Amino acid sequence: MQNIAALEQEFESKIERGISIEPKDWMPEKYRKTHIRQISQHAHSEIVGMLPEGNWITRAPSLRRKVALLAKVQDEAGHGLYLYSAAETLGISRDELFEQLHSGKAKYSSIFNYPTLSWADMGAIGWLVDGAAIINQVMLTRTSYGPYARAMVRICKEESFHQRQGYEIMLTLSKGTPEQKQMAQDSLNRWWWPSLMMFGPTDAESTHTAQSMKWKIKLKTNDELRQQFVDITVPQAEILGLTIPDPDLKWNEEREQYDFGAIDWEEFWQVVKGHGPCNKERIAARKNAFEGGAWVREAAIAHAEKKAARTELKKAV
Amino acid sequence: MNNEQLIINNAVDKAVLADYITMLSDNSMILGHRLSELCGHGPSLETDIALTNISLDLFGQVRMYLQYAAQLKDEETTEDTLAFLRYPNQYRNVLLVEQPNTDFAYIIARQFFFDAYHALLLEELKQSTDETIRAIATKSLKEVSYHQRFSSEWLKRLGDGTDISHEKMQAAVDHLYPYISELCEASPLELEMQATGIGANLAQLKAAYFERVNSVLEEATLTIPENKWTQSGGKKGIHTEHLGYILADFQYMQRVYPGMEW
After folding, report:
1. Which residues of chain B does A174 touch, with a Cβ-Cβ cutoff of 8 Å?
2. Out of B36, B63, B83, whose CB is closest to A70?
3. Nearest-CA neighbor of A101 among A53, A152, A36, A54?
4. Residue A199: strand, helix, or coil
C-alpha cells in the first residue's frame, strides 16, 4: 500500500500537469470537502435561482416570452441536476445536500435573495446575473475536478444563450415606450450592485481564494473577475442607453480599465447571513417543495418495489 | 411554424373556423399556464423538469393554433391579442384544465384526464379536412403521447404506491371526475365543425375515452367514481372562479401596459 505522502505527491503532480482528477482517484480530504462545498453551492444557486424568475412565468407579456422564460428556468433545473450528480461522485447524496440547503448550512448565490419586481428584471437577470455567472463559470470549464469541469462546459453553452436572451429583453425595452425604458433603468438600478457582489468578497477578505487557486479550482481572483465583468458590461449599458447607477464609474486611461465606486459590503454580509429581502421566502419555497413532495417520492419507491416483487413472483411461478 | 407555411382554408366561414381553432388552443393554454405555475416547485427536480416540458409543449401547440387563427382574422389580430386580450367569458376551455394545483395528486389526475382525451382528439384531427389543423395535430400527437405516458405512469405509481399516496390519488380522482364529461360534450360550434369534416366527432370519441380512463384507474388500484353529477360550462364561457385569477396573472402585462412590444 502506498503511503499518504506518495499519494499526495502524485495528486499534486497531476494538478501541476493539468491532468484532471476523477471520482475514483485518490484526493486529499480537504479537496473533496472543498469540492462538495463549491459544487453544491453552485447547484443550490441554480435551483434557488429558479424562484425569482419563476415569479414572472405566469405574467410574461407575450407567448414568445413566456415560452422562452419557461425554457430558461427549466434549463436551470437541468443545471442543478448535473451539478448535484457531480457532487454525488464525491460521496454525498442529493438528499443530504438538500438538507444542508434547508438548514442554512450550505450557501447559494446571494443575488437570488433579491426580489423580481418587474418584467424588466427578467432582462436584467439574464444580462447581468447570467453575465456575471458566465465569467465565473468559463474559468470552471478548466477546473481540476473532471466531473465538475465537464458539467460546466455544458452549462456555459446554455448560460451564454440565456445571457443573450436577457440582453435582448433589455434592448426591446430600451427601444420601447418611455414607461418601458424607465422599467429597464429601474431594474438596472436595483441589480447592478448585487451583480458586482456576485464575485464574492475582495481578495483581501476572501478566505478560500489562496487554496482554491493552488488546486486550480479557481484560476482568477474575485477582484480580477469583477473588473472583467465591469469592463465588459459598461459598453453594453451604453448601447442600451441606460445609466449605470455609480457616479464614480469612469474609464481609467492608464489602467485601460474602468474605475468603479465602493461596494456596500455591509449589505453583502447581511444578505449572506440570511437578512436579505427574500432569504426566508426562497428557503421556505424550496423546503415546501421538498417536504411537500416527500410522499410522492416515497410512493414512487414503494411502487417500484411492488413491481419488482411481482416480477420476481412471476419468475418463481 | 412560419406564417408562410400556413394553408388557409377557404371552404368555410373564416370567423367560425378561427373560433374553433381558438377553442382548441384554450385547453392547452390554460392547462399549460397551470403547469407553468409549478416551475421551481415540483416534488423532485425530475418531475419539475417533466411538468415544465409538458407546459412548453402545450404552449408550442397554442402558438401554432393561434398564429393560424390570427391569419384567418383581420390585420390587427395576432397570436398575442387572441391569447391575452379576450374577456373571461370568451375563453372556451373546459373547467377541468383551470382546476388548481392542489397537490401533486391533483396535478397528475388533471393531467391524466386531459391527456387521455387530448390524444384521442388529436387522432381525430389528424383526419381533419383542414390541412393546417392536420399538420398541427400530427406534430402535437407525438408530444401528447408522451404526456399521456407520463401522467398514466404517475397515476399508477401514486394509486398503487403507499397508503398515503393511494388516499391522496383517490381524493383527487373523486374531486376531478365530475369535470371530465364536459370534454366529450360537443358544443354547437364543435358540432358545426364536425359537420364540415374539419372538427372532431366527440360523441364517437366518448366511449373510447371512458374506456381508457377507467382501465388506467383500475390498473392504479383506484375506485372509479360514480358519475351521477357532472360539472360543465367552460365551452359556453361560464367558468369556475379559478379562471378569473388565472387571467389576472396571465393578462397582467398586456392590461397594465397596453399596446407595447415586448
Report:
1. none
2. B36
3. A36
4. coil
Give A62-83 pLDDT, tens digit per residue: 999 999 999 999 999 999 999 9
Mean pLDDT of chain B: 95
- Say whether B45 and A84 touch across the interface (CB within 8 A): yes
Within 5-64 of B, beta carbons closer than 8 Å to A belong to 33, 36-37, 39-49, 52-53, 55-56, 59-60, 62-63
Among candidates A227, A233, A290, which has minimal Cα distance to A256? A227
pLDDT at res. B3: 47
CB A213 within 8 A of CB A219: yes
- B45 has pLDDT over 80: yes
At which residue does the C-alpha cell 365543425 appear? Answer: B193
Helix (H/G/I), strand (E/B), else coil: B129: coil
Whether this model's pTM surpasses 0.80: yes
Q: How confident is the model at residue B1 (pLDDT cuts 50, 70, 90)?
A: very low
Measured between CA atoms, the residue of chain B closest to residue A291 is B43
Size of interface A-B (CB pairs under 8 A): 135
* Complex ipTM: 0.95
* B2 confidence band (pLDDT: 50, 70, 90): very low
How far away is chain B from the Cα of A184, in angstroms, using its nearest Cα?
Answer: 12
Reply yes or no on domain B8-256 having CATH 1.20.1260.10: yes
Task: Look at residue B6 in the predicted model and tell me its pLDDT.
Answer: 66
> Using CB atoms within 10 A of its CB, is residue A152 exposed (0-12), middle (13-18) or buried (19+)?
buried
